[in-house]
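Render this sequence as a predicted structure.
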Amino acid sequence: MPNEREVTVLSTTAMKTAFEEFGPVFERETGYRLKLTFGPSLQLEKRLAEGEGADVAIVTHAGAQGLIAQGRGLAGSLADLARSFIGVCVAKGAPRPDLSSAEAFKAAMLRAKSIALSKPVGGGASGAHMASVFERLGIAAAIKDKSIYGAGGPAGLVGLIVARGEAEIGIQQMAELMAVSGVDIAGPLPEALQSVTQFTAFVPSAPQAPDGGRAVIDFLRRPAAKTVIKAKGLEPN
């Protein structure tokens, strides 16, 4: 039997550093113990669609809506939490690419010897978006041979690949880049190429601790939690 005071959370990796900071506060205040699992939102959505259980899930807004429509989530439990922007990083002290325009970004990508990214299929939201950006800029073929894909989840962050010296440039959600101490953030993508991902919480169907799941959502919408979420690279709703 699961611990009735344990709350199982499946969350996008973009929220990991925020949970590390305010998770202990939530546990002290509520008496619940958080059981946290982080991963790329698209992978989590697939797992939930296939029947994996949780008390609360934080994935893309579209993914959450789709899961509720499939009967995999409780109607009325949707809560938009934060918007995420895609950014670019380099190793600590390395020259930063020009991100002032789409053309400047294109030139920087063509000059780069290696680029770390989320997987375009089955990875995080940024990977699929960047694949379409490179197509739109007409450089997909040139980028393909120098792309290095992160494994996803906390251990597969793009910033870790750059910090280890295995890639010159990294592109991922800003919050995920900020989670790695060994990189410098060059900035967000140019506005013309940017993609904003809305992360949304909901209570999956048949939760073991539905009250705990709702308590997590309520906590995440408090001003103090929003302050932490913003400090970790996301834009709270």
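Summary. Residues 50 and 178 are 31 Å apart (CA to CA). The longest strand covers residues 79-91.
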